[in-house]
Write a structure and sequence with these properties.
Keywords: Methyltransferase, S-adenosyl-L-methionine, Transferase, tRNA processing. The protein is about 30% helix and about 20% strand. By secondary structure, the protein is α/β, with parallel strands linked by helices.
Length: about 350
């Protein structure tokens, strides 16, 4: 699937670098703001951004170190409590993923290349040849779940399966295998008890992303796609780089890491009151779970430090509207795609 994946990476953004998937509904007349539930690519005024910065600065006094340690040490407990209370009712299935991230279901994308030769298995001949060559060069231990699959996806921070199950429903590739893990054992148990959970196509396990010494049930260099949807922001900032670097080792050459997470000055950040800040742009919610708000530059630095190359790094500014209450809510999310080079970069002889 490596050739097919590379094609999608190249075609997933428009020539001008703007995201074509969303971004089709623009607010040109402020008087019409309540005509729809959401508006895309909303530009902020200088006054609006200055107001957001001021709001963040007003509430940036960090909690005492002992409280911060408590939230760090009890993070697992807080997430288990979250899923015990909400079970599978809090998040909706993320069907938008296939529009934003066609790598999750290559055969479903309108950008799919139809002129490639197809074998009797229904898969691209070039993909099968590449898979055979890869197996010959880099044999792997076959004693792991999904070892016989040729297209492997891992979702980190899977929750109750709002990403995993739409992938399994939508992507009918017989060579697909999906892994999913979460910090919360309660969440993983909910995934495993879902009637759509199929051990022949999926493997769920408990894993702490921030524990870089903990083993994954997957060998390094075997994943085509890694998905992080609103999960990296839950880690302590000092643990983020090592976590991304560890995940990058799991990717095949040409594999891609997909991320969508909270951006700086998102509505959720501006709503935090005093007494909720842990450190710069890092907060604790009322239920004890934590959240960080990123900039594009921070994420780019982490991914490139992990040896990955940028395919996409954009800010999605959305204006959501509650027409019943006549409320406007400005959301800021960051979406990234970074891939592992087919050939590792060789440092210059002059590099220290």
């Amino acid at each position: 699937m490596l050739i097919k994946l590379t094609i999608f990476l190249a075609s997933s953004i428009s020539e001008d670098g703007k995201r074509p998937q969303f971004g089709t509904r623009f607010l040109t007349d402020p008087r019409q703001v309540f005509q729809h539930n959401a508006w895309d690519n909303v530009e902020w005024t200088e006054e609006q951004e200055a107001s957001a910065k001021k709001k963040v600065l007003e509430n940036c006094q960090p909690l005492p170190s002992e409280k911060q340690e408590e939230y760090e040490n009890r993070a697992n407990e807080y997430w288990n409590d979250f899923y015990t209370i909400h079970e599978n009712r809090f998040f909706k299935d993320r069907h938008w993923l296939f529009t934003e991230f066609p790598e999750l279901c290559p055969q479903c994308s309108p950008n799919n290349v139809t002129h490639q030769k197809v074998s009797s298995t229904g898969r691209c001949v070039q993909d099968e040849e590449r898979a055979k060559q890869g197996a010959a060069v880099s044999p792997i231990n076959v004693n792991f779940p999904g070892a016989t699959a040729s297209y492997r996806i891992l979702e980190v921070g899977c929750g109750v399966g709002n990403t995993v199950f739409p992938i399994l429903k939508t992507n009918n590739d017989p060579e697909l295998f999906v892994y999913c893990c979460d910090f919360s054992s309660t969440a993983v148990d909910l995934v495993k008890t879902n009637p759509e959970y199929n051990l022949g196509r999926c493997f769920a396990f408990v894993h702490d992303l921030s524990d870089v010494e903990a083993n994954y049930p997957i060998p390094d260099g075997t994943l085509d796609v890694i998905v992080l949807i609103f999960v990296l922001s839950a880690l302590h900032p000092i643990k983020m780089q090592a976590s991304i670097s560890r995940l990058a080792r799991l990717l095949k050459p040409g594999g891609v890491m997909l991320l969508r997470d909270y951006g700086r000055y998102d509505m959720a950040q501006l709503r935090f009151k005093k007494g909720r800040c842990l450190s710069d742009n890092f907060y604790v919610r009322g239920d004890g779970t934590r959240v960080y708000f990123f900039t594009q530059e921070e994420l780019h630095s982490m991914f490139t430090e992990a040896g990955l190359e940028k395919v996409q790094n954009l800010v999605d500014r959305r204006l959501q509207v509650n027409r019943g209450k006549q409320l406007t809510m400005y959301r800021v999310w960051i979406q990234c795609k970074y891939h592992k080079p087919l050939v590792p970069s060789i440092p210059s002889e002059h590099t220290v």
